[in-house]
Amino acid sequence: MSRQPRTQNVTTDAGEARITWIPAAAPRRVLAVSHGAGGGIEARDLKALAAALPGHGVTVALVEQPWRVAGKKVAPAPKTLDTGWRGLWPALAAPGLPVVAGGRSAGARVACRTATELGAAAVLALSFPLHPPGKPEKSRADELLGTGVPTLVVQGGNDPFGKPGEFPPGSYTLAEVPHGDHGFAVPKRSGLTEEQAMGVLTEAVTGWLTSLG
């Protein structure tokens, strides 16, 4: 049986951040995941992973950036997000387990940009914003291709920030949630329920984490 979730406040150079730990009973690694620029750790994909992974030996650390903890509505510049993440890292690494850096959307970009520097074991990029909607020429592929560690991208099939077919070749792994938008919501006409869509996501992540050894 897993222990109860607990929260931990961490002071960073970008302000006070917060980690919600969902511990596995016999953890082999930590998956640290942060939210995007428009929401928090209540996102459906983060909640699904927090529910599924502890049973597979993965302690989940849901990370709230300082701007969210402070109650602000708009995320700061990428450099400030990176500063917050760096400040959190010692707390994430404190259990002494390999840490997989992850996040959704803007949080995925942070994990990609800082993975090598911080010594992340791998990167999980949920809804990686390959480009702004309608502006494929403004690609952020270099962030994804430059992680330097094993990387899994989980992308909605209808994500306006980059559909799976738009992603360039690279050494990363790409998993698709059919019909999903940027928040992995699926339309009723798709025939998929939200539960089924989240099942696709959690199975892809669980399988990939297991493959890391």
Automatic annotation (TrEMBL):
Identify the InterPro entries for this entry: AB_hydrolase_fold, KANL3/Tex30_Abhydrolase, NSL3/Tex30
Residue ranges of domain KANL3/Tex30 alpha/beta hydrolase-like in the record? 29-208
* Any single Pfam family the record assigns to this protein: Abhydrolase_11
PANTHER family, per the entry: TESTIS DEVELOPMENT PROTEIN PRTD (PTHR13136), TESTIS-EXPRESSED PROTEIN 30 (PTHR13136:SF11)
* UniProt protein name: KANL3/Tex30 alpha/beta hydrolase-like domain-containing protein
